[in-house]
Specification:
Keywords: Coiled coil, Repeat, WD repeat. With about 625 residues, this protein is an alpha+beta fold. Helices cover about 35% and strands about 25% of the residues. Helix 2 packs antiparallel against helix 3.
Length: about 625
């Protein structure tokens, strides 16, 4: 609505008036209940009863009529002429015109110049025209909106059509490139297929060359050792006996070599001859037995050789000197099946692994180049040990055999097959003329490499003999058995010298420290024990369970023990402090551990078929 001109304020005034209420305090009013329709007992008569009934019926009819009355309806009244003009001017934004109109309108109205028909409602045609005009404007706005949406849709359609054409063209190009690549791949496959025979041939040549290289190195080292020994012997002979004895010594050495006697036995006989000692007399041998000796049997050396490691002072291993101990530095995927044991070359950085895949493999470490593979066992290979000279290798297997492999001949030269069950472990005597093995048939055997026969069978264990090892530079053997005992044997007589009791479960492995005064053993429930060889007593016992411990190894200093555990870790036990740490890296049980000769690194092999080097 338009603003209405305010009337003159002088025509109105305000006055305060107080209205007093008449109170009739002297009159006593009686309260009558509105709902009271009964009649007092004294006034009850027929007329009063009829009147009460009629009033009740009238009240009911009035209530019904009140319920039937419809609610007020909203009546739309047409606006008057002046309101119509005001609304129109406001809608058009003509405010100045609106002010002039109102001024003139009220002046005419005050002067009475407006007729009654001039101030009535707007004729219907104008209202209808106004409504139609509003509707037309609304439709025009919607039309503009739809036009804008249609233009946007048209632009989007054009854009999508262009993108469709682009992607269709791109798809055709990709299909063409794909077909071209497929053709090139087929051509390359055909081309490279012709290289496979050449690659196999080159690989075979490379393996052969590496094998010949290592064999040449081994032969060279052996030749250098022999020359050094001969030079020293010649010098001693020339100094002591003169020229005739020199010729006699050389002639004697040649005769012994022709007779098939090994270098250790040659040295023993030459030493006896030079010192004027009597030769070997079978009748005076304290270890002589009543049965007839084989003509090629080797004489056991006298047990008076001094262990050179007794006085050596070894520096602590890298696990103690480096912060954080050993860490994983290299991983070799050696076999498809589990690795059962490891053996390190006595002088070179060469490692042999044995596996459940019936083979053993020789590796150059730490780079992991394969040198050769040994095949010949008919079942899993359980253990391996290098000859003290490094030119031979002994292996044991589940086919009950013990094999000796000659690297110079690149073949198996000797096979011992007298065990009746699987052979578990083997160990060389320090002279290299004897080999000891243990088996599931509850026995251990000492083999003579010169006569190629079993010299002694060690009987005494009540269950499988799981491990065997020689004491350094002696004729003493140590065995561990599933009957929970550890035994020391004299290899010259085949008799048990001492038995250690203390394990509550099957003994899996035993080993000497380099000094030879301590034995470490582990069992199938994860218990590690250290034994004093001289006192025949337990030094310490450590529970590394509940998983079995499979192998144990001393570091060169004898201060740290590495234990292969079935939980996939290598346990590092410090002998002095008793502290235990773990090396984690294998994905399955660890079966074997071995330290290098200097204690700079540790090698482990596991059931995951990998060899891991820690340094």
């Amino acid at each position: 609505m338009a603003d209405v001109e305010a009337p003159d304020d002088s025509a109105y005034y305000l006055d305060q008036v107080t209205i007093t209420e008449d109170l009739d305090d002297d009159y006593q009013y009686e309260e009558v209940s509105v709902d009271e329709e009964t009649i007092a007992d004294g006034d009850e008569d027929l007329d009063a009863a009829v009147r009460v009934i009629e009033e009740a019926s009238q009240d009911l009819k009035a209530a019904l009529r009140r319920e039937g009355v419809p609610g007020p309806a909203v009546i739309e009244r047409p606006e008057v002429v002046d309101d119509f003009v005001r609304n129109y001017l406001l809608k058009m934004g003509m405010r100045k015109t609106l002010e002039c109109f109102q001024t003139e309108w009220y002046e005419l109205q005050q002067k009475g110049l407006l007729k009654e028909e001039d101030i009535q409602t707007v004729p219907d045609v104008y209202s209808r025209n106004q409504q139609l005009d509003d509707h037309v404007k609304l439709l025009r706005k919607e039309l503009d909106k739809f036009k804008e949406a249609a233009n946007k849709a048209k632009d989007m359609y054009v854009k999508l059509r262009k993108e469709r054409d682009f992607h269709r063209m791109h798809h055709k190009r990709v299909v063409q490139e794909k077909n071209k690549l497929v053709t090139d791949i087929k051509r390359l496959k055909k081309h490279y297929a012709s290289y496979e025979p050449t690659l196999r041939q080159l690989k075979h040549k490379y393996e052969t060359a590496m094998k010949e290289k290592m064999l040449s190195k081994l032969e060279r080292d052996r030749a250098v050792g022999q020359v050094s020994g001969l030079q020293a012997t010649l010098k001693n002979i020339e100094t002591g006996r003169g020229e005739p004895v020199f010729l006699q010594g050389v002639h004697s050495s040649r005769e012994l070599a022709k007779a098939g006697i090994g270098p250790t036995q040659q040295s023993l006989r030459e030493a006896r001859n030079i010192e004027g000692l009597p030769g070997y007399d079978p009748s005076k041998d304290p270890t002589r037995s009543e049965f007839k000796r084989h003509p090629n049997d080797t004489e056991f050396p006298m047990d008076n050789r001094v262990n050179p490691y007794l006085t050596s002072q070894k520096t602590p291993t890298g696990h103690l000197t480096r912060t954080g101990g050993f860490r994983l530095t290299n991983t070799l995927h050696a076999h498809q099946l589990a690795i059962s044991n490891l053996a390190l070359h006595p002088r070179k950085e060469i490692l042999v692994t044995t596996s459940d895949d019936h083979t053993w493999k020789m590796w150059a470490i730490p780079n992991g180049d394969i040198i050769m593979t040994g095949e010949g066992h008919e079942d899993w290979v359980s253990a391996a040990d290098f000859h003290p000279s490094g030119t031979k290798l002994a292996t044991t297997a589940g086919d009950s055999t013990v094999k000796v492999w000659d690297f110079a001949k690149t073949e198996c030269t000797v096979t011992f097959a007298e065990h009746t069950h699987a052979a578990w472990d083997c160990a060389w005597h320090w002279t290299g003329d004897f080999l000891a093995s243990c088996s599931m048939d509850n026995t251990s055997k000492v083999w003579d490499l010169n006569s190629e026969r079993c010299r002694y069978t060690l009987r005494g264990h009540a269950d499988s003999v799981n491990t065997i090892t020689f004491l350094y530079y002696s004729n003493t053997l140590c065995t561990g058995s599933a009957d929970k005992t550890i035994s020391l044997w004299d290899a010259r007589t085949g008799l048990c010298a001492q038995t250690f009791y203390g394990h509550m479960h099957s003994v899996n492995n035993v080993t000497f420290n380099l000094r030879g005064d301590t034995i470490a053993s582990c069992d199938s429930y994860g218990v590690l024990k250290l034994w004093d060889v001289r006192a025949i007593a337990t030094i310490t016992s450590v529970d590394l369970g509940p998983h079995p411990t499979n192998r144990v190894a001393f570091d060169p200093s004898g201060q740290v023990l590495a234990v292969a555990s079935n939980d996939g870790t290598v346990k590092m036990f410090e002998v002095g402090s008793g502290q235990v740490s773990s090396l984690t890296g294998h994905e399955d049980a660890v079966q074997a551990v071995v330290f290098d000769r200097k204690g700079e690194y540790l090698v482990s092999g596991g059931s995951d078929g990998t060899v891991r080097i820690w340094s």
